[in-house]
User: What shape does this take?
Amino acid sequence: MKRSNKFLAWMALPLLAVSAAIAQPPAAFMEKQNSGPASQVDPASLKDIGIDQHLDTQIPLDLQFKDENGNIVKLGDYFKKGRPVILTMVYYQCPMLCSEVLQGLNSALQTMTFSAGNQFEVITVSIDPRDTPELAKEKKASFLKEYNRPGAEDGWHFLTVNDPKDVAKLANVVGWKYRWDPKMQQFIHAAGIMIVTPQGKLAQYYYGIEYAPKDLRLGLVEASQDKIGNLVDKVVLYCYHYDPHTGKYGAVVANLLRIFGAATVLLLGGFIVLMVRRDSHAGRHETGQA
Assistant: This one.
């Protein structure tokens, strides 16, 4: 009887796990309200500012920028290794919000087992023609020191404007709307990051200044078409899908119910096999005694 109880307890584990997932999804996948710092900009001037999702849109990979060393590079140069890309649009002289975006991204990347320059690339593009490669180099050194991952210097790229038309075209393609405010002498813009496939197509958007590491990981795995990640990632992606309206991963109830049903079948089947073997063994024992 003790053996039967242990078997039932073991068989019930997947059932309980799936039931818990249905009742309450993991915290990493639950929506969290993101907000940037308070703005002193007139609300009326924010009418055309924001981020429009252009999912599955091809980014022009022939657009040219300057890297942190002052070299003219093409956006496509960073897609040649076949890795998914995290794209951020900022400007390096931003007094507040851009630093918060990059800090939020850096904090999320630090907790991930994936590393920039290994499983993915990060491209940070300045929209400000006043930003120099020297300033980009300083920003890169500062964030890489905090990130502290071997090889990240070849995986996180800080770009500046070469031709203002190219940066405007990139912003338009990805749906990142901004405007220069001559009164405040700064750019008005929204906060968020994007994940791009190795082919250069926009895959996902994440809003605000804080990004859930598990969402980012799943986004990179999905954008890579399972070329990175492991079996656990594939199972989780089966149960959780990216919701473009929230910029988060949410539970797919139908798939969770399928797993729940499979676990139930396994549990009942195992119980039946156990009882048949138990009765068969008891019958042989009684026959032997007779």
